[in-house]
Amino acid sequence: VSSLSQAKTPVEECDLIGKVDLASTMVVGDDYKQYVDNFLIEAAPITAPYTGDFSQEGTIDDYGVIDANNDVKTWTWSASNGAYYPYSSTNKADDYLILPIKLEAGKNYNVTVTAASSTSWAEKFEVKAGKTATVEGLSTTIIPETTVQTSTDTEYEGTFTPDEAGTYYVAIHATSDADMFYLKIKKLVIEVGAEGNAPAAV
Q: Model pTM?
């Protein structure tokens, strides 16, 4: 983070993906900003390779949240759990933890999510991507819906190849059934693979 801007950029001019309880990440053109305490903080664009280590408290400030079912049970953070979705006793999870990141056209990006839950409750998530930070815009599936039922940190992998360069949104979408427990995300890693048309190594 480089500076505080005293002149706020109007929210309607931004691609706002944050929630009230998190720093609100915005993209204004090619500029990344965070809306914190009535100021816009200039932030460097996030690019690959990227590692989001949720053992560090500040990591979640780069993310926004969509609570798609509006039940106020949504992504949060703690030192012991990392980024986690706390269960709802009545509603199925429908909550997105969203990272804005600049990607290049035609490159294969390897996406790895390290997750854990409990041996007693089965949690579920998928990883989506898109050009807009909306439920409708997150239309590309990187990791299909996956069940997590282990207290051991486990890696889940997928790949994504953008058609064009620019800002994309990569979202961890909690889809657990109602009345489960905690879906814990310990790390999100996005690595640059080979060019999309490059031959495989021999």
A: 0.79
